[in-house]
Please model this.
Amino acid sequence: MDRRRSAIGCELAATSYELAMVSPVHASELPQFSFEERQRRWQRVRHAMAREGMDLLLAPTHTGHWGQLQADVRYLTQLAPNMYEVFAVFPLEGEVVAITRMDSHTEWLRNAYEWVGDVRGLGRRTWSALVIERMHELGVTEQCTQRVGVVGLAQWQPRSPEGIIRYDTMARLKEAFPRIDWVNATGLMNHARAVKSPEEIACLERAGQIADKGVEAMIEHARPGMPAQTLWAHMQAAMLLAGGEYPSMINWDMRPDLSAFARHPTYRLLEKDDFSINEIEGKFNGYNHHTLHPAYLGQAPENYHRAYDAAYEAFEAAQAVARPGNTTANMAQAVEVVFQRHGLQGQFMMLGRGLGEDGPHQTMPTPDGEKPTKLEEGHVFAIRPVTGDVGASGRRFRMWLGDTCVVTPTGARRLSQHKMELAEIPC
Model:
């Protein structure tokens, strides 16, 4: 009897402990997408799955690259904020299931984000065990020969050349369903995410306002004698105070005739005539606004201004031709004409932006090569022309600028408000 009472007491204590761990957060406290937006996305993805003959799509958890490698999970479920681990099981027909790491987190995720009602916790099991369980519920058996798409199964996205799903997860899935035709769904999802809805563009505009604050903080606080890490912290703080989500990318450095930045801020003290190139991303509700804003500590030499003027003209040329029906090749050609006219060597780069690198891309290698992408209204990407010249140190500096834009019938519209210029910071 004592043992039974003890067991019941332990069970009640464990239940009380689990209840105590449930966060009271409510959906009204967080930015949300509408159920109409969910319908639009799920229809878009399911139409693509049907074209490819896929009965099921798996979007595995992977928090790398500032959380961007988990973009497909977030696109389908809204879940996975702050690099939180979530695995999505998305059938062609039937209920979507999200799997999260801890049992105690399932209720607050359901309360915080209303798109997915079936949120399951791993407990002491594995990702593959819960995916296999859900596939059995959907009627998939050991003898089935269905086609199942896996995001990150193989190379496509240039940031993850060998895919993102764990080897042991995939091995257990193949063992459980040896006759399934497992196919790479990374490209399918990138293309599905590429055209943005008005709700998504509104998030990207808010992220642009946050990126504006990062640019302003860099110009306001940069001074000789300040550790570079301190200036980086001012930029991060400004974006967080503006409502930004963490983590967001700032690839940044400031030193004489700079041509490449470190991936982590250093403790070097800034000096007069330092020059910054950077990638600054504001993030809101998972959406990333990408901007590049060169800055000079002091008065920049004349050849810096010449390089900037050419790069900015190239940016505007790419904007002008970024209309529906044109291609990324048309944009690259417009940029090349500008650099040739200025007698400068230059390069055109563009990266699709959204929850991750959604496409279309240019100058990023993929297994299929770089076929020009036909532009559609609602495509969002960062236009990033780059040129340079030789500085006073004898080294070549890189003049790299850009901003995130959306394709409209009249050309690409910027989604931030800061003034694009070569910032000269008095000192």
